[in-house]
Design brief:
about 35% helix, nine-stranded mixed sheet, 4 domains, Rossmann fold, 22 helices, about 675 residues, nine-stranded antiparallel sheet, globular, alpha+beta, single chain
Length: about 675
């Protein structure tokens, strides 16, 4: 059952009977008003819930630990700097059902959100609830609000708020309940100590210099409203806390507009309004927000982590004349026109076939066999299978290659430390051990390090990719990182749906994505954007063993479909039959209509032929060289069709007519679409 109430004043709750508490929450989204004060909203308007079973007295339910009998949902409030996309990816990889939604104090630059997990069985003791919450913290790799572990704690229902993400529902299994508190996660139940921030007043000239560097560096990102608002609020808090003076704050607000003159007045007006109305918060200081230094390693630092290879590094400076005449090595491709050396991504929704495709690519490259019709450069391959164990990999290899022995130079590993615990060093050592040219990490989400709330997510993600790129460049390898698509993103560009920041896309040498063809669910669309090659748009189909076959480019398949539709169009067939033995005819729309098969005449009128011919004019000329002219005569409109003297219209159609024994006047021909 669900117990709910509005506002924080009082302990009595109302009962709502429901078979599925998560579905009840999904249908209970509350909308916050624009600029509504989060604290006042929480006190007065917000709805709160508690799911499970509580004792009642004379029909009255009072929320307290004594009356709490059991709970069936695990609810966590996360405010330790983790971003909701990383948490969602970890839960998706772990396979647990979850509901994730923002809380009233959510801000894009300081995310606060709630995670709801379904328990596999009712939790009947406070100790079991605390132990299970600690297990959740272990899975998420972070901290959460300690009030979340209170036995009878109620939490807010989902909200919708300007600038916040929509409610995310991940499908999966219930979370296992435990009675034992893991020793490694006892600290996860403690609130993170708030860092003491340096808010020493900054001279105006220094503050303006810092802002100028920030605007120059992040000019493109400031076009996005959420990024601009985050920066403006940081300026406002700096004024309110005395870090910068009011006039400097005004100048900074204007500078955030960049070279867009029409924005400057609006920025200044919004600054003056917000600085009076907005309450100060414990946000980053001015220097932390605008003058931070990205933690991307220098070349010297990276060489300490990755041993410098024997080959000499290329010069990084050329004059145009030197560059024109320099003899530079060609780009190495392990799959020609598709997989160059460098680091990049393969993204796709679960179960779309990412692992199948990568296993197929690994076998092809390690054995020197073509992959999807592309020649390969044979090299050892390392495949880090972090989601599938040896049994499942063995099963897939036997399914995909039932009569073929596997290459000796394909190496599977099933463990890899996280990024901040030495993943790069392990990968580099394995590359040297096996002489590998291709490395696959399936999936990246299992080695990603937690993001800091003190620095922009974009720059942290870009910095992480810089490590992989540097490793790939120094070892001459192609590193493929597997990731998922974000179901909560509504973009039409599939690459914008990649989990994590846009930096994942921008920092890579290549991005590959897989998705089901909306026009044919049996087909997979494979797309690639690439710095070092032209990129690809392929349509793939899987055979009964699970191997992918390349059936052509998007354009090829579109043309085939268009040509197929053209062949089976009854107007085209009728005109083609009329022109079989003649190169020029003049007919009316009614004559064409009457010569069409009876199945094509149903529910139509002769006038429909004229509309159809307008649409078919381009393809008639394109596929058959047939042109026509529409003329108005005394007795009505006629169409004069003409085909080339040396070309018989549509050989395929003529063959079909011969096979079905249809003649020009035969209107009882069967519907060709039924046999196509």
């Amino acid at each position: 059952m669900i117990y709910f109430r509005q506002g924080l004043k009082g302990a009595t709750m109302t009962v709502a009977k429901t078979d599925d508490p998560i579905e009840w929450l999904k249908s209970s989204v509350q909308v916050m008003r624009p600029n509504e004060n989060p604290e006042k909203f929480k006190q007065d308007r917000a709805w709160y819930f508690l799911s499970g079973k509580m004792a009642d007295q004379n029909g009255l339910v009072t929320r307290n630990d004594k009356n709490m009998i059991e709970r069936d949902l695990l609810v966590l409030d996360i405010d330790d700097g983790q971003d909701h996309e990383t948490v969602a990816e970890r839960l998706a990889i772990a396979g647990y059902e979850a509901l994730i939604y923002p809380t009233p104090r959510y801000h894009p630059n300081a995310e606060r959100f709630r995670v709801v997990l379904r328990a596999e069985r009712p939790i009947t003791t406070p100790e079991s609830y605390t132990a299970t919450m600690a297990k959740v913290a272990e899975v998420l790799g972070g901290q959460f609000d300690p009030s979340s572990k209170t036995w009878s704690q109620m939490q807010g229902t989902p909200i919708s708020k300007d600038g916040a993400f929509d409610v995310i529902h991940l499908e999966g299994e219930p979370f296992p309940v435990t009675d034992k508190l893991p020793e490694s996660t006892t600290t996860a139940l403690e609130r993170r100590v708030e860092a003491v921030r340096d808010r020493t007043p900054i001279p105006s000239d220094e503050a303006l210099e810092i802002m100028a560097r920030y605007v120059e560096r992040d000019a493109e990102k400031l076009i996005i409203r959420d990024n601009y608002l985050s920066a403006l609020m940081a300026v406002i808090y700096a004024v309110q806390t005395g870090e910068i003076d009011y006039e400097t704050g005004e100048q900074c607000a204007v500078m955030l507009a960049g070279d867009r003159e029409d924005w400057k007045a609006g920025n200044l007006e919004q600054f003056r309004y917000e600085v009076r109305k907005t309450r100060p918060r414990k946000e980053q200081s001015f220097s932390e927000k605008f003058d931070w230094k990205p933690d991307i390693p220098t070349a010297e630092e990276l060489f300490d982590a990755i041993e410098k290879p024997a080959k000499q590094r290329q010069r990084t400076y050329f004059t145009a004349e030197q560059l024109e005449n320099a003899e530079l090595p060609e780009i190495t491709f392990y799959v020609y026109g598709m997989l160059p050396e460098g680091a990049g991504w393969l993204a796709g929704k679960p179960k779309v076939g990412k692992s199948y495709l990568l296993i197929q690519a690994s076998v092809s490259i390690a054995s020197g066999q073509p992959f999807l019709g592309h020649e390969v450069q044979q090299t050892p391959v390392i495949y880090y299978s972090l989601e599938m164990g040896p049994n499942l990999i063995q099963q897939r290899l036997r399914q995909m290659y039932p009569f073929t022995s596997q290459p000796k130079d394909l190496h599977f590993y099933f463990e890899l430390p996280t990024f901040d615990n030495g993943a790069l060093n392990v990968i580099h050592a394995d590359i040297k051990r096996h002489g590998a040219g291709v490395v696959i990490v399936d999936t990246h989400g299992l080695i990603v390090k937690s993001k800091s709330s003190q620095k922009p997510l974009y720059d942290q993600s870009y910095g992480e990719m810089a490590y992989f790129k540097k490793l790939a460049d120094e070892t001459g390898t192609a590193i493929i990182l597997v990731t998922h698509l974000n179901k909560n993103n509504k973009s039409d560009d599939i690459f914008d749906l990649m989990m994590g920041s846009a930096a994942n896309r921008g920092g890579a040498d290549f991005n590959m994505a897989m998705a089901k063809n909306p026009q044919d669910k049996e087909q997979i669309l494979f797309l690639e954007e690439c710095r070092k090659c032209a990129g690809l748009e392929l349509v793939l189909e899987r055979d009964r063993n699970g191997l992918f076959q390349n059936i052509g480019t998007f354009e090829d398949c579109d043309v085939r479909q268009e040509k197929n539709n053209y062949i089976n169009d009854p107007v085209v067939e009728t005109v083609s039959r009329m022109l079989l033995d003649r190169t020029k005819i003049e007919v009316t729309a009614k004559e064409i209509f009457e010569a069409m098969p009876t199945w094509a005449q149903s529910n139509k009128k002769p006038q429909s032929v004229g509309y159809a011919l307008k649409k078919l004019a381009y393809n008639l000329r394109r596929f058959d060289g047939i042109t026509f002219e529409r003329r108005r005569r005394e007795n009505g409109i006629t169409y004069t069709f003409e085909r080339p003297h040396n070309k018989i219209t549509f050989l395929a159609l003529k063959n079909k007519l011969a096979e079905t024994k249809c003649s020009l006047g035969d209107t009882n021909c069967s519907d060709p679409r039924e046999s196509a």
